[in-house]
Every structure is written in structure tokens, then in C-alpha cells.
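Appendix B, example 12.
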Amino acid sequence: MQAQLGAEWPLLEAALQTPPPVSIRLNPGKTLDFGRRTLDFSASSSNPLGSKQPITQSPIPWHPNGSYLSERPVFTLDPIFHAGAYYVQEASSMFLYEALRQTVDFSKPLKILDLCASPGGKSTLMLDMASPDSLLISNETIRPRTGPLRENLERWGSPNVAVTSGEVEEFAALEGWFDVVLADAPCSGEGLFRKDPDAMREWSLPQVEFCAARQRRILASAVQALKPGGILLFSTCTYNEQENDENAKWLAKTFDVEPITLEIPVDWGIVRTAAGGAQLYPHQLQGEGFFLVVFRKKEGDSKKHTPAARYKNITPLPKNLAPLAAAWLEPSIEARFFLTPSGDVLALPATLEPDYLMLDKFLKTKWFGTNIGEFKGKDFVPSHALALSRLAAPDLPGVDLTRQQALLFLKKETFDPPVGAPLGWTLARFEGLNLGWLKILPNRLNNYLPQERRIRMSLNSRKE
């Protein structure tokens, strides 16, 4: 880094000794509908968010819904975090928004692939930009990491997404199918040193070489999956040229792609690299280390793929039950309903069904649509995913909880039903946002928050 930065090296070294900035990104589907462009993190001695001072917000220049926070609240104890109102995302990685804004036409239906997606920050960012008729495929090769990815996407609430766990070569078989591919490739993690001490301990020169070689394997499959004229974004959270610029130059030399030069305001503090990429350094801006370069695949012939005739592991919901399931959904959304082998009811946006069938043909491990619940006889039991989804009908019964009641709900504890609460299945809400399901009976309520989602932290905790 001394060789790479020269006289600026002491500035980076000093920046790495400072606390990392805290930043969030609003979910426009769950906040802007309520007129919120900032969230209230004001704190007092009685506020459960953990701060004794007011928490101020300032804008992130390269994302309209991104904000820096003056300190880190206890996000676990904020009900609207659990409702999916915002994502706690590192500020530098939000620069992806600006790169996409300049290079992709999001007004038309697109097929978008996030090839290395967990835990889901960049997937949710792209979902916010995509049209409702677009499909985002959020892939994580390492199977155990798909759990947090699916949870974060479920909390975000967008129905036009599929989660997959495939090797990158599986997507190469879908040659020329995707309009946009993001390869946020595994790297040596130099940009995470002040945020994650483990990244420092795991770093070595052999690890850099291993990551650079793995990135080239990922990029080769990403180019193959991209359609002619499509956009490929390659990013890392590291600094060294071997993983960044050298791989970008290799990509341009080896494949039929051309780099796109982004327009970047000088006052953002972002450095242009020799290969046409953007490098973000913590001594130049408020954020961690991040590298991004954008390519367009040159025009050529598109390969035609034929989707599967039917799904492999799900079957259509019986016709007599479909109207009962549809009654729980937003009326303007046309959905197809299917049953999984375990009896869960899936709702798939009808316009995307050919794309789901294509994925089902080529990929082994995938999760489609929104799990909206299950039938027990003719009685429908709604799922937690439905409560958080934008598919949920706006006129479903609900009850507004106080902050203390909302936290008790999120700890999966019981409390007295609010006065006037409707009987039966009822959405637990906080500040207008759905948290999950209650079933209110004449003399008690049952809390249907999934056991694995409950808060285990003390409500008096000041640290996460």
C-alpha cells in the first residue's frame, strides 16, 4: 500500500485507526410511502435504541436514500429495522447505485443476477432500482450463507426475486440470458481491516493470489451468462491492484467486453484507477475500502433458451383454494399459486413465471416466490413472509403497537391485546409497518413470530 499510495500512505494508516462510519439505506417500499426520507433515531434516557445523545443523520452523496449516522444505535432493539424499513449497509458499497444509474435502463423489465449475494445488501439495493416486472436472482454459492440472505430479502418485502445456491458455472449454462450481472467477488478483504479484525488476521500474499485467481473464474462465468449489450459490474472490498485493476485489464483483454467510464464528481473523493475503475479509500471519504469497475458486453447474437414445461418440485395449488389464498394479497398483483412438498403455499408474480421456469430447468438449488402460508383443511394460516411482503393486502386486519409492545412481540412474549384489537388473524404493526402475525382470541393473544426470529437481547442492552 505504501508503493500504491506513495505520500498518501500515512493518511490511510491514520484513517484505519479511527472508528468506521455507521450508515443505513432506506427501503423505499416501506418508508417513502410514509413520507419518510430520514428515520427518527432521537434518543433519551428512556429510549431503547441505546444512545444517550440525539443521533443525527447526514446524506451519502452517491445514494439518495443513504444516510450516515452520528453514532451506532442498537439496531436489534429498533422495531422498524425488523419490519425492513432500512438496511444497515456500508456507505462505500452503496456507490453501486450510481454505477447502475449511469449504465442501466431500469424502466424496462430486466433479468438481474447478483452472483455472490450474501448477506443481501447489494441485492436489496438493486431490487429498489428494478421495475416490478424485473426479476433479480440472488445467488450464494456457500449454502449455509443462504439463510441470512433469504431472511434479509424476506424482510425487504420485494416479491420479484429468486434465491439460488449454485456454482458460478451453473449460470454460464444460461448463456446470454441476463441483462445485468454483478460479481461482488470474494476477496482478501483489505478494505475491511478497521471494521473486521479477522480480515487482518486472515490476510496473506498467497491469499491475495488465491482470491485473484478465483475472481477470474467467477468473471469468466459472469461474462458468459450476460447477454450481448448487457452490463457487468465487478467489485471487491480490497485495495491491491492484483485483485482489482489487473483482473479488470485481464477481463477486457480476454473477453468481448469494453469498460465504461463513470462520471464521478471530484468532491466525492473517489479515485479513478488505470483500468477505468473507481477505488474508494477511507482516508478520502466516509466509508471503507471498495473497488468497482463496469463493463458492457459487445453486441452479438443472443442464444435462445427454452424454459421448462413445468416445475420440478412444486405443484399448482388446487383451483378451489386459489381464491382463498388470493384474498390475502394486494388485489392489483396477479399471482400464480403453488404447493411445496411440505405444504407451503407459494405466490409467484404471473409476469415472471417464464423466468422462474427457466431457472428451474438450469439450477438445482433455488427458492422461488413468496411463501404466503399454508392450508389446514380450508383454513388458511398466513406466514411471517407474507406479513413482511409487499404482496400483503393493505386492508388486512391490523393493530398498532406501542414501542414496548412491539419489542415484546419481537421477543416472542405475550402482552395484553390493545383495546379494540380485532379478533382472529391480525397484523402486529409499529408506526404503520408490519412486524408479523398475532391471533387474538377473546381472552388472550397468540404470538406467531417465528422462534428463530425472536430477539434474544435484553431490552435494556446498550450494545449489540
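The first helix runs from residue 2 to 5. The chain has 14 helices and 23 strands.
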